[in-house]
User: Fold this.
Amino acid sequence: MSQRAADHEVIVRTAGLRLGYGRRVVLAHVDFQMRQGEFWFFIGPNGEGKTTLLRAMLGMVRPQAGQLWVHPELGNRERIGFVPQRCDINPTLPTTVREFVLLGLVGTHTDRNDEALRLEWALDRVGLGRFEGKDYWSLSGGQRQRALVARALVRRPSVLILDEPTNGLDLAAEAAVLHLLAELNRKEHQTLLFVTHNLAIAARHATHIALFHAGEVVSGPRQEVLNRQTLERIYGVAVEISADQSGAPVVTVCPPEGRP
Amino acid sequence: MIHEFIASWALFHNTYLVGWLIGLLLALVGVLVVARDQIFIGAAVSQASTLGIALALGLGSWTATEALEWLHADAFLSAMAVVFSVLAALLTARGGEDSKESHEAVTGWVFLVSASGAILVVSHSPHGLDEIHRLLSSSIIGATQRDIWTFSALVIVTAMALGASHRRVLLFALDPAMAAAVGMRLKPWALVTSAWLGLAVGLSIRSAGMLYTFGCLVLPALVAKNLCREVRPMFVVAPLVAVCTGAVGFMLANHYDDPPAQMTVALLCLLLTIAWLIRRLRRGRDVG
Assistant:
């Protein structure tokens, strides 16, 4: 198993990047740099270009202008793990957790021994070690989401991309998935890119944030982006930023008549 | 019963072998059809190849000159069946892509155009109408040595392709979004799998008729789906179900002097009912 890019090594860099479909421009100017071991959050409402930038990083959308550099290790996508918002598998089909997770190995070069090792490693990471032979459809919503993460992890990715993976989960399941991701980032130095429109989740877990609004992307370390001036300019509402008991920032939207 | 079947081998061995080979081929392709929940597409593709044969018969009856003798050739009928089923498979695969119309609507349109067109085209040709009725009711008597070679080659190519890239095939069938994310090019995949479905169905219809073709395409895969705990073993169980049921069906048909295609499809339906019961019992036990 090859080693990932070293910690803090740049893995994605854009400069003046313009993205869109046909003549339509979705993102007019994107400058950002992602390094190994960072936990990025892409935040913004639907239709603001989060998925378009993701697709560009995956090589599925060509830049209209500017530069997009992706670490050569990620170029063939063997070292990219992707967790979709939802999994559209035909629910009448029989499949086990093992078969489902091993589907993540498509496009990787592995032999049977390596497959077994990767499967065990990925299932252990997401806490589904005991469920290997279990019917995928008998899992709860939160467990299925963890199986999706395991399917991405089995590739031993340099970057794990998650497209709104906590949508539709109850509070407990959402907390479990977020805890799992935070642990992966903290203990395994796994680079994560989490797409969401939930600012509260990002405020708690992100090391870096990219805010998407009206074709513009404001990005950088959490403390630089999550400040009153930036948020008020991007969202057009008055906000207050405080800290919770653990020290994580909490963003509060002020009532229209003025600050509390 | 077995002795009678063995005694009939000399006369009907081509029919039996082609019936089993078609069962094998369609069961393998059918796992993909069932996995992608495209059973109705299977019906539409089968029906479309009937329209191709009807058009070929119609052309033959309208242009009864020696110069166009090839229009009456068996190869021309087979080619038209394949061309129409491939076109139908490609058309139904494309339906819904641009969000203007759903897959179901396009598939329903293909099915109905083919079903009505096939009869209308040959309605004034007694021979043509007989041939279409024979295709719709399925008769696998009359298979040739060439059919055996053709279907053997198709089975080998299909099995090798599935063996070489089973995980990619599975991911493409089960989760296209993930397949695209890991770098699989979905359009060429959809093109090749649709064309292969059309080819398998078109050739099978010409040799075995609509009922047997559609039955072997979906029933063994559905039986396997209910018996297996994973998708991968379905590629082994479905062909086994098709061949074993074909063997028993042909024996029973020979013994009771019934049509073999109908007997086999009826047995497959019975097996599917049993498989449903087994799955229900197993689920009840798992929950318990």
The domain at 2-281 of chain B is CATH 1.10.3470.10 (ABC transporter involved in vitamin B12 uptake, BtuC). Chain B is about 85% helix and 0% strand.
